[in-house]
Amino acid sequence: MSISGTHIPHIHYTPETPPEEASRRFYEIMRLRRSVRSFSDRPVPEEVIRLAIASAGTAPSGAHKQPWRFVAVSDPAMKRQIREAAEAEEREFYSRRAGKEWLADLEPLGTNANKPFLETAPWLIVVFKMMKAGDATQVYYVNESVGIATGFLIAALHHAGLATLTHTPSPMGFLTKLLGRGEHERPFLLLPVGYPAQGCTVPDLTRKPLDEIMVRI
Ligand code: IYR
């Protein structure tokens, strides 16, 4: 088989410790990540946000189309507008759209339509998926690609000592308008980013054990 695109030698990353140790150390960091709903207004340098987004941009994507856009918002007036629009959607969600079962599933999380963190968190990163590439060509496996990139982003922010919340006000169309994105960009996820508020609590959740999520054949 011939390959028409240019190929270059692969630079393989080798950890400084054996893989058993490297993977354990990574897990020990990752297991401390929690979604946080109560943020401090302590500032976060823009450089940290830029580098975390750069890490997200290293994700694999269908045919390398990189169908993502990360809008980093720190402007208080814009955060306020986003909060107001999101809360309007959430009021609709909690009072009408969510069925009984969904509301019961959310009960332990203690969520409601009030979203002060959208103003308190120093940064909101709004992740958009691109339904066409920058040059208007087709894109492939967009949800998979953007989902992976968002996972990288959350991991990079956590690794830098920051907390996030994966927030999905639904529907999110208002974000396209407010942030002036083009017709091919669709909101995927809204991530408040910052430090947890003092005395921040999180739901007492347990994660499924490895032998429940892993099947070894
Ligand atoms: N978007 C709503 C409801 C909500 C839905 C799920 I699924 C959650 O895990 C948490 C909340 C809200 O943000 O309140």
Task: Please write out the topology.
Elements: H1 19-30, H2 46-56, E1 68-73, H3 76-97, H4 100-106, H5 117-120, E2 123-130, H6 142-159, E3 163-164, H7 173-178, E4 185-194, H8 210-213
Antiparallel strand pairs: 1-2, 2-4, 3-4
The structure holds 3-iodo-tyrosine (IYR).
The proportion of residues forming helix, as a percent range, comes to: 25-40%
For the largest sheet, list the strands in their spatial order. 1-2-4-3
How many domains would you count in the coordinates?
Answer: 1
- Name the CATH architecture: 3-Layer(aba) Sandwich
Residue ranges: pLDDT <50 for 5 or more in a row?
none
Determine the CATH topology.
NADH Oxidase
Distance between the termini: 32 Å
Count of alpha and pi helical runs: 8
Strand residue content: 5-15%
Structure, described:
The protein has 217 residues and is an alpha+beta fold. It has a single domain, classed as 3-Layer(aba) Sandwich (NADH Oxidase). Helix content is 39%, strand content 12%. It contains 8 helices and 4 strands; from the N terminus they run ααβαααβαβαβα. The chain has helices at 19-30, 46-56, 76-97, 100-106, 117-120, 142-159, 173-178, 210-213; strands at 68-73, 123-130, 163-164, 185-194. α2 (46-56) runs antiparallel to α6. The two termini are 32 Å apart. 3-iodo-tyrosine (IYR) binds next to α3.
